[in-house]
Amino acid sequence: MTGLEMSMGAVGQQATRITIHGDDSTAAAQAYGQSGDGVSSWGDDGLFGMFTSAYAECRQIAAAALSGLSGEIGATGESLHTVARNMGDTELANTQGLGQIWG
After folding, report:
1. Model's pTM, two decimal places?
2. Which band of pLDDT confidence, cut at 50, 70 and 90, is reported for residue 42?
3. Of 22, 64, 94, 99, which alpha carbon lies 20 to 30 A from 57's?
4. Which superkingdom is the protein from (predicted)?
Protein backbone atom coordinates (compact mmCIF):
# COMPACT_ATOMS: atom_id res chain seq x y z
CA MET A 1 0.00 0.00 0.00
CA THR A 2 1.26 3.47 -0.92
CA GLY A 3 -1.29 5.61 0.89
CA LEU A 4 -2.61 6.79 -2.48
CA GLU A 5 -5.46 4.31 -2.67
CA MET A 6 -8.90 5.58 -3.61
CA SER A 7 -12.30 4.16 -4.33
CA MET A 8 -13.06 5.22 -7.88
CA GLY A 9 -16.75 4.50 -7.31
CA ALA A 10 -16.83 6.79 -4.28
CA VAL A 11 -14.88 9.49 -6.13
CA GLY A 12 -17.33 9.29 -9.03
CA GLN A 13 -20.33 9.54 -6.70
CA GLN A 14 -18.90 12.50 -4.83
CA ALA A 15 -17.93 14.16 -8.11
CA THR A 16 -21.55 13.94 -9.22
CA ARG A 17 -22.74 15.38 -5.91
CA ILE A 18 -20.26 18.27 -6.11
CA THR A 19 -21.24 19.00 -9.72
CA ILE A 20 -24.92 19.13 -8.74
CA HIS A 21 -24.03 21.39 -5.81
CA GLY A 22 -22.19 23.68 -8.23
CA ASP A 23 -25.26 23.82 -10.49
CA ASP A 24 -27.50 24.62 -7.51
CA SER A 25 -25.06 27.30 -6.35
CA THR A 26 -25.01 28.83 -9.81
CA ALA A 27 -28.81 29.02 -9.89
CA ALA A 28 -28.88 30.61 -6.42
CA ALA A 29 -26.18 33.14 -7.36
CA GLN A 30 -28.07 34.06 -10.52
CA ALA A 31 -31.32 34.55 -8.61
CA TYR A 32 -29.51 36.69 -6.05
CA GLY A 33 -27.85 38.68 -8.84
CA GLN A 34 -31.21 39.45 -10.41
CA SER A 35 -32.71 40.89 -7.23
CA GLY A 36 -34.10 44.36 -7.52
CA ASP A 37 -31.94 47.26 -6.40
CA GLY A 38 -34.22 50.17 -7.06
CA VAL A 39 -36.00 52.38 -4.60
CA SER A 40 -39.24 50.52 -5.31
CA SER A 41 -37.64 47.33 -3.96
CA TRP A 42 -37.39 49.03 -0.58
CA GLY A 43 -40.73 50.80 -0.72
CA ASP A 44 -38.77 54.00 -0.32
CA ASP A 45 -39.67 57.45 -1.58
CA GLY A 46 -36.03 58.37 -2.07
CA LEU A 47 -35.00 59.34 1.44
CA PHE A 48 -32.73 56.31 1.71
CA GLY A 49 -31.26 56.72 -1.76
CA MET A 50 -27.66 56.80 -0.53
CA PHE A 51 -28.20 53.61 1.48
CA THR A 52 -29.95 51.78 -1.35
CA SER A 53 -27.24 52.68 -3.88
CA ALA A 54 -24.49 51.47 -1.50
CA TYR A 55 -26.46 48.29 -0.82
CA ALA A 56 -26.94 47.71 -4.56
CA GLU A 57 -23.21 48.03 -5.17
CA CYS A 58 -22.39 45.62 -2.33
CA ARG A 59 -25.00 43.15 -3.56
CA GLN A 60 -23.56 43.24 -7.09
CA ILE A 61 -20.06 42.54 -5.75
CA ALA A 62 -21.40 39.68 -3.61
CA ALA A 63 -23.30 38.26 -6.59
CA ALA A 64 -20.12 38.29 -8.69
CA ALA A 65 -18.17 36.56 -5.91
CA LEU A 66 -20.88 33.92 -5.45
CA SER A 67 -20.98 33.34 -9.19
CA GLY A 68 -17.22 32.76 -9.27
CA LEU A 69 -17.40 30.44 -6.26
CA SER A 70 -20.18 28.37 -7.78
CA GLY A 71 -18.14 28.06 -10.98
CA GLU A 72 -15.21 26.71 -8.97
CA ILE A 73 -17.48 24.22 -7.20
CA GLY A 74 -18.74 22.93 -10.57
CA ALA A 75 -15.20 22.77 -11.97
CA THR A 76 -14.10 20.76 -8.92
CA GLY A 77 -16.83 18.20 -9.60
CA GLU A 78 -15.82 17.93 -13.25
CA SER A 79 -12.17 17.56 -12.26
CA LEU A 80 -13.02 14.74 -9.88
CA HIS A 81 -14.82 12.98 -12.74
CA THR A 82 -11.63 13.35 -14.76
CA VAL A 83 -9.55 11.93 -11.88
CA ALA A 84 -11.78 8.87 -11.61
CA ARG A 85 -11.68 8.34 -15.39
CA ASN A 86 -7.89 8.74 -15.52
CA MET A 87 -7.38 6.33 -12.63
CA GLY A 88 -9.57 3.75 -14.36
CA ASP A 89 -7.68 4.19 -17.61
CA THR A 90 -4.36 3.88 -15.75
CA GLU A 91 -5.41 0.69 -13.99
CA LEU A 92 -6.56 -0.79 -17.30
CA ALA A 93 -3.28 0.14 -19.00
CA ASN A 94 -1.28 -1.33 -16.10
CA THR A 95 -3.28 -4.56 -16.23
CA GLN A 96 -2.78 -4.85 -19.99
CA GLY A 97 0.93 -4.07 -19.65
CA LEU A 98 1.38 -6.73 -16.99
CA GLY A 99 -0.53 -9.18 -19.16
CA GLN A 100 1.92 -8.57 -21.98
CA ILE A 101 4.92 -9.01 -19.68
CA TRP A 102 3.66 -12.20 -18.00
CA GLY A 103 1.54 -13.45 -20.89
Report:
1. 0.72
2. low
3. 22
4. Bacteria
